[in-house]
Design a protein that fits this description.
Blueprint: H1 14-36, E1 66-83, E2 93-109, E3 118-120, E4 126-131, E5 135-136, E6 140-141, E7 147-153, H2 155-162, H3 171-187, H4 190-208, E8 213-218
Amino acid sequence: MTTTRARLPRRLSGGVWAAAAVLLVLMLLAAGLALSALPGLRDVFGTETRDRSGPALLESIKDISRYDAASGSFQVVVDLEKDAKYLPDAVRGTRTLYVGAGSVDAYVDLGMVGEDDVTVDEDRTSATLRLPHAALGTPALDPDRSYAVSKQRGLLDRLGDLFSDNPNGEQAVQQLAVRHIADAAKESELTTRAERNTTDMLSGLLRSLGFTEVRVTYGTSKAGS
């Protein structure tokens, strides 16, 4: 009786090699995840951040003649809701609760003062200055102190975020926060404080130059009329 022994193929097929390679990759990945979970080894698989930004380009230079005499800090809570007309909020609609913090400067433009707005007596001991009223600068939103408290989005809005270059964009609530901060600054006494501080600054400066009487008024300067 003759016994026939089956011979193993000397070479493995391409499919077997591919399966083995995939298995090896999975094993290495599993080992890496396990090691990264161990204390002290997480940094081995950590990410590294590189700043590849180019140098800043100077676009323009502008002389500033205004005196920033006061600055106010403001905080506003913005509740912005956008609904679709014929769809429920769960399907289409957004609502964002956002805390916006920023500052507004009040300044006096000394560049608007002309020769006719400054009067000095013959003895050079008394001076009268007529300055333009203080104005408010552009509100500056502080990103470090501004944040979204909650965001609610419908199903279609969530799907749209998947194909958006700026998912969960907060530009609308930020612009609304800046607008509310500007309105709050107008209702405050920021410009009044700026004019008082400007008066104190100029009075101290002129008195140090030998003037004993300094009078500062505010209104439409002749140079700006």
